[in-house]
Specification:
7-stranded mixed β-sheet; 3-stranded antiparallel β-sheet; alpha/beta; 12 helices
């Protein structure tokens, strides 16, 4: 993974620093507006990480101790820890082993009268089966939270991710498609939820308050310090100018790998025709991960897993489920090949030849 560095970013950051206005302000306001337009959802709020976007989603939904949250264990621990920290019972659904995404039928089977939310992760950028998931949620009056850390500009049936579930959480962490060093955003279905989050991200106060002093406001709901600052925001503004080119390259590279890897011992995940993956990573399944990694590393190609099943972590031991056979299958075989914007055509065909000869 590499961090994209747009031209002029160091000078822009220095200019913001020298201005003295380094916290939330005109640049974070501008980036929030521009990012909202980019994903096509005006109810979008910048925050300081995707993890804290998930924390805010949990707060607005009202998740508390004893509530159940159906999620996937095939993700970064940051997807599930915000709900665990609310005292919720994590109920892990199985996945589709051909995509790595949560299985709607498994979700349906695990719903109880205590289920408060469904959390989905668009693995590697490939959107989940949102029609089925949203229908299940509607039938049971349950909120849907999307972890779209991998899925910037991914689309499902012609609609960009950010416009489906109740809350959609983005990551601008170092190696994501769009990096602000660290940061994130949360897109909401309802404008009133976005308005509430804009207060919650800054202690419960409205920074746009028009009175004589913002400090004279009453705090009606205790909040957090989750806002994005101007330093990160100016980086985001500059990155937005390049992000389509970067994502296009990820998609092009991943499609080339899928098309040309013919070794049956190395299986690329499927790409469904009714959706577009932003291809943050290119996942493959192999029978012997350790052997495959050693083989690729010896040839100078870095491969890794990106994430592992959360069921491996002791903190989630009380939520382990022996029925998640597809998850176990996927986790035991998952590796990721380089497909980022920095990978050249020459590099790709070297990787393809190497994999086909494995």
């Amino acid at each position: 993974m590499k961090v994209h560095t747009p031209a002029g970013v160091a000078e822009a950051v220095a200019e913001v620093w020298d201005s003295g206005f380094v916290t939330e302000g005109k640049y974070s306001d501008r980036f929030e507006e521009e990012f909202s337009k980019y994903i096509g959802n005006p109810n979008t709020c910048l925050v300081n990480s995707c993890t804290n976007a998930l924390v805010l989603a949990a707060r607005v939904i009202g998740i508390k101790e004893g509530d159940e949250v159906i999620s996937t264990a095939m993700t970064c621990m940051a997807t599930n820890e915000p709900f665990f920290n609310c005292g919720a019972k994590l109920v892990f659904a199985d996945i589709d082993p051909e995509t790595g995404n949560i299985d709607p039928q498994s979700i349906k089977a695990k719903i109880t009268n205590r289920t408060k939310a469904i959390v989905v992760v668009h693995w590697a950028g490939q959107p989940c089966d949102m029609d089925e998931i949203l229908q299940i949620a509607k039938e049971h009056n349950i909120k849907v939270v999307e972890d779209a850390a991998h899925a910037l500009r991914s689309s499902y049936k012609g609609k960009i991710i950010g416009n489906h579930g109740d809350f959609v959480c983005y990551s601008f962490q170092a190696v994501k498609h769009l990096s602000t060093a660290d940061g994130g955003a949360i897109a909401c279905k309802r404008p009133e939820d976005a308005e509430r989050i804009r207060k919650l991200r800054w202690f419960g106060l409205d920074r746009k308050y028009q009175g004589s002093s913002r400090w004279e406001q009453d705090i009606k709901e205790s909040g957090f310090k989750f806002h994005m600052n101007n330093m990160n925001a100016i980086i985001g503004i500059l990155q937005l100018e390049h992000v389509d080119k970067l994502i296009d390259k990820h998609i092009e590279n991943s499609l080339l790998l899928s098309k040309n890897i013919t070794n049956k011992k190395v299986k690329s995940l499927i790409k469904k025709e009714d959706r577009i993956s932003s291809s943050w990573i290119h996942s493959v399944l192999v029978e012997d991960k350790k052997h495959f990694k050693n083989y690729m590393t010896k040839a100078g190609v870095h491969v890794d897993v990106a994430h592992v099943s959360n069921l491996r972590y002791s903190v989630f031991k009380n939520f382990r489920d022996n029925d998640l056979v597809n998850l176990e299958y996927f986790d035991k075989r998952l590796m990721n090949l380089p497909c980022g914007w920095w990978v050249t055509k020459e590099d790709l065909f070297f990787i393809i030849d190497l994999v086909n000869n494995y």
